[in-house]
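Q: Predict the assembly, please.
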Amino acid sequence: MTTSAHMTTGAVAAPARARTAAATATVRRKQGFQHGGWFVAPFLALFVLFVIWPLLRGVYLSFTDANISGDGASFVGLDNYREALGDSAMWDALGHSAYFTLLVVPCITVLAFLLAMLAHHIERGKWLWRLCFFVPFLLPSTVAANMFQWLFTQGIGLVNETFGLDTPWLTDKSYAMLAIVIETLWWTVGFSFLLYLAALQGIPDHLYEAAKLDGANAWHRMVHITLPMLRHITGLVIALQILASLQLFDQAVVMMDFGPGPEVSTRSFVQYTLEQGFTSYRVGYASAMSIIFFVIIAVVALARMWLLRTREEGGR
Amino acid sequence: MGRPDLSRRQLLAAAGGLSVAASFGFAALGTGADALASGADTRVRYWNLFSGGDGANMITMLDAFRKAHPDIDVKDSTLQWGNPFYTKLAMAAAGNRAPDLGVMHMGRVTGFSPGRLLDPWDVDLLAKYGVREQDYNPALWKRGVIDGKLYALPLDIHVQLCFYRKDVLGKAGLLGDDGRMIPVTSTDEWFDVLKKAKAAQKKGLQTIGLWTNDQNFQWWFFVAFYTQLGGKWFNDANTEVLFDPDKATQVLEFLRRHVTDGYVIPGAPTGEQFINGAPFTWEGNWSVPVFSGAKLDYGATPLPPVFGRPATHAESHAFVLPHQAGRGGATNEGAHELAAYVVTHALQWAAGGHIPAYTPTLSTAAYKKLTPQNEYVSAMDHQATEPKVWFAGSTGVLAQDLGPVVVSSTMGSAKPDKVAQTMKSHLTKLLASKNPMDGRTAAQGGAVA
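A: Predicted assembly structure:
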């Protein structure tokens, strides 16, 4: 009886205890959210105000013929999208952004890796190399672009002068994008360089020591230890570079004196969108193009994630 | 020392509160406190796009106005020129936060939705302050009139000029007895002049600066020479494209020939090369202060009339009244008075190279003494302007669409005759398209003077 009574109380008590514990956890979670929520709130408010709201507003505007003054817009359905898909200037601009990305991403990845190896292995004046490679990244884009505009100017520029060339870097369509790519490499390689350098420093020394004992030469150590250990960072660098390069705008605009480049050869998608919105005052149309671009970038980002995941799963 | 009872938290709160209060305080200062502080009864807010030498000139003129009119406080703001300026002006007018007075390029006025984003001038009030229609070049005045009302009060015209160095041209025997460049009346003569100048110039420099890679300049030059050929854009009702590809081809081939014959280094800085000894450069008249400041022995004529009749591309800065729901009263009158003052005291403005729009200024002895301004003042009488449609005007849709196309011909990546056809199809498309500001096409756009 006692036992059964005890058992009964016990049977009753256990769920009660569990309930209490669950309730405490809920309270804790709630308190946690309340406290954490306050910390996140400023960011969340700004994020909603400056990212989510404009995005929704952009989607809405893309279905209207809104102009810059913001009033008198009427709903036009999919007209803007239909027009954009048939707009050869838009496709050209998209092509320029893609071309730029194709040129920049492999170059910057390889260059950042090589510079990081150099700065990691060099013994004397380590800090100087790191500083030299990283400092350009701290410059505002306009400053960097203006410097290279000077360097590349035909007739007076340092580049032609130094190499004894007479190349029309900024005024010929076969060179203009190349000039922007070179500027971008110099200006932004520091960021990827830093990622690689940190990752290199994170590879445990004993791996190399063991490999040496096994008779692996420098090349083997590089191919079988360094590169595999850096795989994740390489993936990150490539992803970040693709997303950044697709959004090419400021350096091209400054180096081309706010024009579309020689024979419209450097006008990026972002620049064309801006022109539609703020020169032609077609806010609805520009919004539709922004949404199209948003989708393109999202697809690229998702595709990369998916590729990486299948590769990792396949590897394991 | 200090207050022992003030905790860190209280201190932070107090500092935060102060900074918030201060920011409100400064905001308030910007909206009216300064007008009260100056003791003036009326406050005129004035937006302009003048920087550099023009900006300094404008500020001098405003200071003179302030001295002469202590009852009016002028609050001027200089914004970056080009599209950023027009975007801000349009949004301010649409949001009913428009300034009392603004500046625009004349060509942009038609596209700026007169009646909705712009208010018309009260011509009687302008006359009261000394500005009447008869004081203007009739063609220029008419450009500011839309649906019978004056929406833009011209301050100046600015043109592209043929700057030449007298030292080099003298050596080449290309100066007349009056010390000015010998007249040119055909393309052959013009290229002959270039050939002689090239022989006399310093080596390593181009013979003429032509902004071959700049979409705005190339477009302006095209407009000038196309007008010299008597080329038309549209019919009067803006329903039909009258653009003549044959004439356009002639102009494009002319521009291109400067490159193929080796008189231009594409992309070379034009003004700098001129200062260093290049015999010619085609530049805006706003370069006058630069070249005069460099103490060059130079002259400046309108673009050479190589196709027979003279015509030089011209744009104008003009005063406008951005739309205000309750426009009127002393502030509105103050805006009229200020604009009239600047227009009628434009000698200062002329020093910056611009041709004053107010013709009595042109006949003053002081203006006639200005060199090289007195050499190109005739450009006033043969202005080549863009068509009066909503998509025209400085850095507008038309220039944005056609400028790069002209560049591609001048630089040689596209054939002139093909480019002329492209231009025609662009014009056809633009003529049929609606002004995003009011949903009307050029034909419906009320541009009738």
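Confidence is low (pLDDT under 50) at residues 1-12 of chain A. Chain A touches chain B through 31 residues (CB under 8 Å).
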